[in-house]
Amino acid sequence: MSEAWDLLVQAYGAAPGITEDILARPQVGIWAAHTLRRLRNGPDPVPLWLDVGYLHALAAASAVRAGLSFELDIPARHRTAVLPTVGAASVPLDVEVVRVRARSGQVDMETGSRTVRCRPGDPDWHEPIVIEVRADGVSLRVELLDRDLYRDLRGPSAPQPLSGSEIAGWRADLARAWELLVREQPSCALAITGIVRTLAPVPRRERFRPLSASGTEAFGGILLSQPDDTLQLAVTLVHESQHQKLGALSHLLTLCEADGRRRYYAPWRDDPRPLPGVLQGAYAFAGITQFWRVRRQQAPPGERAAAEFEFALWRRQTLGVLRVLATSGRLTGHGQRFVDTLHAELKTCQEDFAPPAALDAAHAAALDHRAMWRGHNICLDPADHDALAAAWQHRAPAADAVLAVGAAKVRAEPPVGLLDARAVLCRYLLFDPDAFNRLGARPDELGERVAGATAADLALVAGDVERARAGYLRELRHDPLSVHGWVGLGLTQVDQPADPATRALLGRPELVLAVVQGLRSRGSAADGPDPLELAGWVGEGLRDRQLDTVEPAGWLAI
Last residue of a domain, which of 352, 383, 415? Predict the structure, then answer.
């Protein structure tokens, strides 16, 4: 290790700018954080050299770019040896140590069985994938990371080499997305040029369900799936650059007091979130709201309805979360000023006109996600299940039963819920009506195209409320504990907010589920309560509750 450190010092002395460029790379932050956690947490089946030895690779890369002559061992893993920003070599499976030799500007890697020439022409040498795009004089230069072990925030991961066609696809997508951003969002584009340095691609995901992530350990790096289209990539760059900015600020200022036991609702996540995560999301989606605010004015006529929906949805969701943050009692002085400023900026969006159709669709999507989240994540005490079931069986006043329910908790790590299935179908309808019609033509295959979606959801999004209601009632007869079925049933009467059943199904579905669970525990599941009658009874106990009730206190996690 001292040999690597000495070489790194020499490289810094010869070319400090180059060495700093390498050490500031996002993957170096991921490696450092991972290795420190590993050293702190104790034994690991992976040889320590394979992680600690990345310092050797950083020293060797710095020395290569500084033009030094040297020899140094670096680790190889998953048949790959990487020199960050210089390139990567493919090596035999059983090789864990590679000797790097640099002489007079020529660099080789000795793998034991053969020598890899670190230059174009050697089939086992892979140059960095660098993409530079330019629009109206504004440039973005990024490296696509497909082989570095530490490109993924979630931990060390095997290389996923990109094919020539995949690289060409990324170049084209980035060029088009960058042109859109520079033209429509120039301030965002300028921020992105100063932030984003690497992209770590992962395979394409289901349509309208992209994956992207960034973290404070890896400033300038974004993990993201192959985008559906140019627009999605542009939104992702805005989204993740917002996270990067707030992550940098959070290194300088404490904005909120974290409570490891308490979790909150975030409308862009299916799992309960700690307050710092909610704040991160609020800032990211404030940027997304502003993106759609502009985009809806610039979009071609065929795309305008979709842009209006996204603007109306994220304006509503982000302002709601900012109200939770502002009244949580856990912001510092810096945090309160930050949230107040953000809220003031977004409040100006409230004055913007949005078409009634977009507002209605956003209203339904917001209520859907919140109700699904509550049904999946909120847990009541089993004693409350029993008490609610007994009250229902005796048709006791629901208000008394509801008031007697104790404090709820949430699952800290709930199973995958797929809470956005109906929102995904809504996006199909708005962004690509022909594709939506194709989904409707083959409803038996819907679950393969949109995980978690049902034929009832298709009917609901298409406007066939009666067919949707019948579908959700069938679902509940088959599975009385289906959160999806209960909330879907509530959405069939979203235009009747004063109806007690609507109030229960979209406001407190966990209470309806608790009654069903209690009946099962009491051996009374065969009673088969009428869903709307049961929901109506629960709703009678919620007369003072609004569907958009803000809950700034959060919930304790279990």
Answer: 352
